[in-house]
From TrEMBL:
InterPro entries: Aminotrans_V_dom, PyrdxlP-dep_Trfase, PyrdxlP-dep_Trfase_major. It comes from the Eukaryota. GO terms for molecular function: transferase activity. It holds the Pfam family Aminotran_5. Keywords: Pyridoxal phosphate, Transferase. Residues 67-255 form the Aminotransferase class V domain. This is PLP-dependent transferase. Coiled coil: none annotated. The lineage of its organism: Eukaryota, Fungi, Dikarya, Ascomycota, Pezizomycotina. PANTHER family: HERCYNYLCYSTEINE SULFOXIDE LYASE, L-CYSTEINE DESULFHYDRASE.
């Protein structure tokens, strides 16, 4: 079935009533914080009610069973053994969990890319400040080809080894956040396997956006993988899945924060570690992540309902991805034509193989004195026009990052393009207020 037919039959603005948006609010920035439908909200609140009705029995005995069911469903989505997947609050926590568990030796190097998510770059920096590890940042500016990036990773490994050091781990995205572009992560994995270094996939924008074959752990076989479920899968914030193959479970000794599942290294004369939680026959890895302090774990338990909604209401993961990818490319062309600029794409035409499109804004960067203008644009979009889009600075120019989603259609992006054109014109003419003075008229 063609995307156009799916749009008229299943997707588009008619789905807005499935979600919790305010009246006439148009969200073209789903990628930043995600959202979830009413039916998932009902499931979410039901679990919150259950834990408050009977806190102790729910947390001690009911929650672990429900958590296993949620893990089983997300494991099916990843085509991974259920014993190799656990939940963490978000992708950044997952990346930190991985990096802080690894034991680094002098000369070990962590490789990452120029467009690695900012918080993850800072996590790498923290590791280099507190352990013997060093870092190697692969520099580039989009648009570059997939082959250029793959060759850059290979060259980085060779350069590090030529310096007598050990390339221990490569950290890379599936889909970059800013700008929103897809990376050739499958080819990165092949390089890591060939060179014998650990691969760490920051797949924050993967589950719910990419196609099932693109997140199939039996095919990809990364060393570490973490993906937010609360962005594109319609699970309440915060919920992310952490995949670690069994062969690496011994590396992941502690959660963040360290909790009851941690097993200390045996010491002569020391008493065995005591875990006050109910015993079970699960692996130490699963037990470790089952209870990590007292937080609201209800989002984890909503994964099965979110997957069921996507299957029954939206036609399943493949159909959703087809619609998102097609709409993202079409939205980019629509906004590009209105603004008279360009879409960010490379020679392989692969950057847009996702649910994002990036369009250059018609702003003279030299005439922009500060980010005050862009904050004014954002607040005006939010509070005057009841819509949301990203305005970002990249490669010396301003861009908008558009997020395709099932509750959007081409007409939404056409309206968004005209709004951006108007606001860019006002910025160019100096006709704007300080962002703090933009008041809601809604």
């Amino acid at each position: 079935m063609q995307t156009q037919e799916l749009s008229s039959q299943r997707y588009g603005r008619k789905l807005r009533s499935d979600f919790l948006f305010a009246k006439d609010f148009t969200n073209m920035n789903h990628g930043s914080f995600g959202t979830y439908p009413l039916t998932v909200r009902d499931t979410f609140r039901s679990f919150q009610d259950q834990v408050e009705a009977r806190p102790d029995p729910f947390i001690f005995y009911d929650y672990p069973v429900l958590l296993d069911e949620a893990r089983a469903e997300v494991a099916k989505l990843l085509n991974a053994p259920v014993g190799e997947v656990v939940f963490v609050p978000n992708a950044t926590t997952g990346i930190n969990t991985i990096l802080r568990n690894l034991v680094f030796q002098p000369g070990d190097v962590i490789i990452y890319f120029a467009t690695t998510y900012g918080a993850c770059q800072k996590s790498v920096t923290y590791i280099t400040e507190t352990t013997p590890a060093e870092d190697f940042k692969i520099q580039y500016t989009y648009p570059v080809s997939d082959t250029f990036l793959v060759d850059s990773l290979q060259d980085a490994i060779s350069e590090i080894r030529n310096q007598g050091k050990n390339p221990r781990l490569a950290l890379f995205d599936t889909v970059v956040s800013m700008p929103g572009v897809r990376m050739p992560y499958e080819r990165f994995l092949a390089v890591c396997k060939r060179e014998g270094i650990l691969s760490c996939m920051d797949a924050a924008h993967a589950i719910g956006m990419l196609k099932p074959k693109d997140v199939d752990m039996s095919i990809l076989q990364p060393d570490f993988f973490v993906s937010n479920c609360h962005k594109w899968l319609y699970v309440p914030r915060g919920c992310a899945v952490l995949y670690v193959p069994t062969k690496h479970h011994s590396m992941m000794r502690s959660t963040i924060p360290t909790s009851h599942g941690f097993i200390p290294t045996p010491r002569p004369g020391a008493a065995a570690a005591y875990n006050p939680l109910p015993t079970n026959n699960k692996s130490p890895f699963v037990v470790n992540f089952e209870f990590v302090g007292t937080i609201d774990n209800a989002p984890y338990l909503c994964v099965p309902r979110a997957i069921q909604y996507r299957k029954e209401r939206l036609g399943g993961e493949e159909a959703v991805a087809d619609y998102l990818w097609t709409l993202a490319r079409r939205s980019g062309q629509i906004v590009c034509k209105i603004l008279g600029t360009e879409v960010l794409e490379n020679e392989d035409n692969t950057l847009q193989n996702c649910a994002f499109s990036n369009v250059r804004l018609p702003l003279d960067a030299a005439a922009i004195q500060s980010m005050a203008e862009t904050h004014w644009m954002l607040r005006t979009l939010f509070y005057q026009h009841n819509t949301s889009m990203v305005v970002l600075w990249y490669a010396g120019v301003f861009w908008t990052r558009l997020s395709a989603q099932v509750y959007l259609e081409e007409a939404d992006f056409e309206r968004g393009g005209h709004l951006l054109l108007e606001l860019c014109g006002r910025v160019t003419n100096g006709d704007f207020l300080p962002a703090c003075q933009v008041q809601s008229k809604l």
